[in-house]
Amino acid sequence: MLIVTYNIQWGMGRDRRIDLGRIAATVAGADIIALQEVERNWREQAFPDQALRLAELLPQHDWVYAAAVDLHDAPGRRRQIGNMTLARVPIASTRTLPLPARPVHGFVNDQQALCEAVVGGLRVYNTHLNYLGEDQRLDQARRVLALIGEAPKHGGAVTAPGVAAFGPEDEWIVLPDGRLPEMPEPAILLGDFNCVPGSSTYRAISDAGFTDALELAGFAAHEGITFPGNTPPLRLDHIFLSAALAPRFRRAWIDDDAAGSDHQPVWLELA
After folding, report:
1. Distance of CA 73 to the CA centre of its chain
2. Is the pLDDT of residue 246 over 60?
3. What is the pTM of this model?
């Protein structure tokens, strides 16, 4: 199973060209794809509905979109920025979970969110943490970890413990075959964390029992670049595995050749 995370910066590459086709070609080989900074009706020079366009370019994948910022644009149209998760198998359920934000002065501070997708016995959490300050990121990381930890205890998006499933003619919220959506224990947390290995945010996630896939691949804390445009270049994008998934690790790497964004994709292969 191949998994990739990629902050696509609304499709604008290092050559300043906006090309969603290039983004889709970069990630098409993955079974699970987590994208950040996907826009809908946000700027004229970009494709109006980037989520829909990427879905068209990746027709073999099911998909969900989680708007972190959702504003009025025009009658019947919303301006949105958020995270998009795609998978080759059906995404059984999804939730968009807002993360804490703070008012700031002198900067633009957008809302961030956690996109939960239940995919083939896994929980996939796609997120993009705050870029402004470590205190905000740490607040958000703690909320993320709490949400991930609580989810299996609360159950799936629809729950009915101890109650026999009814047919659709009796209970409209139960799926037609009587199943209820599951909330499995194994979890993958991935995205643009805007933090480097060794930072407070990174340590909070590691201390909660998650392992960085690139660390399993042998990357030292100072190795690997996913945000090359910074001075110095930084490793900000990560894939973290819960304890149950670490034994399934095969390999992980950074795609240094991808030029479709100001970030580089991070890949993981699981058995």
Report:
1. 25
2. yes
3. 0.94
